[in-house]
Design goal:
This protein has 186 residues and is α+β, with helices and mostly antiparallel strands. It has a single domain, classed as Gcn5-related N-acetyltransferase (GNAT) (Aminopeptidase, 3-Layer(aba) Sandwich), CATH 3.40.630. Helices cover 32% and strands 32% of the residues. It has six helices and seven strands. A hairpin with a 4-residue loop joins strand 2 and strand 3.
């Protein structure tokens, strides 16, 4: 894989069978799971192995990707995915997760820049949307710093730590992305 999938701090790559241990550990991290709005019921290592093996050989379909984020030494730091991709309209959604010890070090920003460059420049999508729970202040700050605009609020859709939280919807158009990067908008 060339340097296209490498930023200043991270690389994005496909899931490999060796990722099982990291993904299993990640799933056992209840505090990390809270950012997903709920503590999931425990899955066995065998179930996660089956998912990892399926991901490792899965061909991309409808521009939906699940990618591992590694630092430049190859250590896993998180994952990023695209989903609900609509090529006709040119819109997609993304999800991002950085493992606790690696947060607030710039890895998420770098991974987002790589994925957005691919979707906007290579696949010619025109808009990305992301949902962030209202308690996730670091993610809110990150998306705002990257030029995402809050487009909506869905009230009380997450329950974690016995409290209800809103989902904030953020969007970024290709024109906003180009302007934010200092590129000429045509």
């Amino acid at each position: 894989m060339g340097k296209y999938w490498q930023g200043e701090m991270v690389r994005l790559r496909a899931v490999e069978p060796e990722d099982l241990g990291w993904l299993f550990e990640r799933e056992q991290d209840n505090e990390a799971a809270r950012t997903l709005s709920q503590i999931p019921f425990p899955r066995s290592k065998a179930a996660i192995r089956k998912w990892v093996e399926k991901q490792a050989v899965k061909e991309p379909k409808n521009d939906e990707y699940f990618l591992m984020i590694t630092d430049l030494r190859g250590q896993q730091v998180g994952s990023i995915d695209s989903h609900l991709c609509n090529r006709r309209v040119g819109c997609f959604e993304l999800g991002l997760s950085i493992h606790e010890p690696h947060r607030r070090k710039g890895y998420a920003r770098d991974a987002l820049k790589i994925l957005l460059r691919y979707f906007f420049e290579e696949l010619h999508y025109q808009k990305v949307t992301v949902g962030v729970y209202s308690f996730n202040q670091p993610a809110i700050a990150l998306f705002a710093a990257l030029g995402f605009v809050q487009e909506g609020r869905i009230r009380r859709v997450a329950l974690t730590n016995s409290e209800y939280h809103d989902e904030l919807r953020y969007g970024l158009t290709v024109e906003e992305w180009r302007t934010q990067r200092g590129l000429v908008v045509s």
